[in-house]
């Protein structure tokens, strides 16, 4: 009877031991299972342990790490940001409306996560601040047609490079890279838009008139030289001045001139 009791006790002890081992093993498996994580393309996992940064995983696929690591996902994809239209005074004090499109991405996920509170909001605020500062440093239009000064409207490529550089200086400390920055909207403010439009129209008219007069003078000179060369007619200074006046009226007029044919003697 006693050996039977001992055998029963040993079996119960063995069963309890197996149960404890199974429970411990299950707990270990569950804890280790929590260390698996997935990294998608163009993503990074920033890992910390008890508030300390321990590393970043950028390799794609299924990964495993110590289960106690806290993991935060940071997207490395290229993003677009279009600013709102802001009103600012240009270098000459004229109020203008301007907006920009910024193409950016995260290149240092640790700095983006820990250097700023919210890097997306940081991009928005700093881009608009850089745009405002850049717009106030240049004139909307050059002072004259022969001016070599950089202006917002006449040098779009140069202005884009300057804007990109200024935004990058602000975002670089947060681990962000600016790929492109371009002006998406540029216009005079409504309160002066009408006056500036008249100014632009007047400038265009003056430039066109200058070209017309220059061409007309050349044509008159050519006509007088050809008449003199072919000995078609011999004109005195008074008749020559009259001919020049008539030709300039015909060539420089806004409308077609109705000629008057003289059927009598020239003199």
Automatic annotation (TrEMBL):
<feature type="transmembrane region" description="Helical">
    <location>
        <begin position="20"/>
        <end position="39"/>
    </location>
</feature>
<dbReference type="Pfam" id="PF01145">
    <property type="entry name" value="Band_7"/>
</dbReference>
<feature type="domain" description="Band 7">
    <location>
        <begin position="34"/>
        <end position="200"/>
    </location>
</feature>
<protein>
    <recommendedName>
        <fullName>Band 7 domain-containing protein</fullName>
    </recommendedName>
</protein>
<dbReference type="GO" id="GO:0016020">
    <property type="term" value="C:membrane"/>
</dbReference>
<dbReference type="InterPro" id="IPR036013">
    <property type="entry name" value="Band_7/SPFH_dom_sf"/>
</dbReference>
<keyword id="KW-1133">Transmembrane helix</keyword>
<keyword id="KW-0472">Membrane</keyword>
<keyword id="KW-0812">Transmembrane</keyword>
<dbReference type="InterPro" id="IPR001107">
    <property type="entry name" value="Band_7"/>
</dbReference>
